[in-house]
Amino acid sequence: MNAASKAFLNTLVQALQNNRGLAHKRDIDAVVTALDIANAENKIPVGDDCAAIPDGDGFLLFAIEGFINEFVTKDPWFAGWCGVMVNVSDIYAMGGRPVAVVDAIWDRDDMAMRPVLEGLAAASRAYNVPIVGGHSNARSEHAQLAVSIIGRAHKLLTSFDAKPCDILVAAIDLRAAYREPYSHWNATTDVDPARLRGDLELLPKLAESGLCAAAKDISQAGILGTAMMLLECSGIGAVIDIESIPRPVEVDAERWLLSTFPSFGFLLAVSPKNLQAVLALFDTREISCAPIGRCDDSRELFLRYDGQQQKAWDFREQAVIGCGAGAARNVTTNAT
């Protein structure tokens, strides 16, 4: 047994369990419990990248993102850009296409909020998604930003439709770099907007062709944390092969797996019969895409590295976001 490999795997599992980004996601459990919505009789379950409401022959999609004050203050233009970008990504992650966004912005005066607004406007043009309204306050003590989006989907990709024996697939645009000091893997701001939109169009194409039914946008919980949310919502488990995950050779493995937030990054659960077609689709756009593990009915997550395997999470005992049939609970908060 390779002692170094065993030590790496053990360190990775411990870091995952104590990961700050994942801790933020685990806070969702208290919210859905207090609102009593985790097991509500919704046609579309709560806990996905977007709220989805059946509408005519498709679905109306809603999403919203709020941004940490420090980020808005230190990198205001990029915060504005991300306001549109991450919402657009959430819509596409569910097989939809964006329609429009609104924003809510606070800052101390008009000049202070201008870089945020310029970032919002630039991303609106790049993704061809109009900003149609919002709320502003130029007399606030702190910079704050929230952005909401609507979209439509003909067929959904969800976090609730991964099946045992599906193959977990990661699709990530590696043609990028970190926007330091944050772990945003930025593959958007210097890219031809037509390419950005064409790359994202792969997601509704997957849904509408029937090649995939389950997907999730890789968030600030990192690749592994995002996989955990997908597995929990679907009520399944998986074994993930760390060495199979697409990663730039110069990037630290722990940072990449646990905290990196790629501007184009999705996890998919794909039937084995459709795997090669899905891989080929991303290859046409020169996006790194690879099978990284296999789903099962264990409701446990195992990580594999260098021929060794270690349990990282038991969904029967610990909630992640507390969504999905039979999800464990972390809190006992009652709705009031």
Provide a compact summary of the structure:
The chain has 336 residues and is α+β, with helices and mostly antiparallel strands. The protein contains 11 helices and 15 strands.
Task: Write a concise keyword list for the protein shown above.
alpha+beta, 7-stranded mixed beta sheet, 11 helices, 336 residues, 60s Ribosomal Protein L30, Chain: A, Phosphoribosyl-aminoimidazole Synthetase, Chain A, domain 2
Please describe what this structure looks like.
This protein is α+β, with helices and mostly antiparallel strands. It has helices spanning 3-17, 20-26, 28-35, 69-74, 76-93, 110-127, 193-200, 202-209, 222-234, 253-258, 275-283; strands at 51-55, 58-67, 97-106, 131-137, 144-153, 167-172, 177-178, 184-186, 214-217, 237-241, 261-262, 265-270, 288-296, 300-305, 308-314. It folds into two domains: 3-38 and 158-314, Alpha-Beta Complex (Phosphoribosyl-aminoimidazole Synthetase, Chain A, domain 2); 51-153, PurM-like, N-terminal domain (60s Ribosomal Protein L30, Chain: A, 2-Layer Sandwich), CATH 3.30.1330.10. It contains eleven helices and 15 strands. A hairpin with a 5-residue loop joins strand 7 (177-178) and strand 8. Helix 5 (76-93) runs parallel beside helix 6. The chain starts with a helix and ends in a 22-residue tail after the last strand.
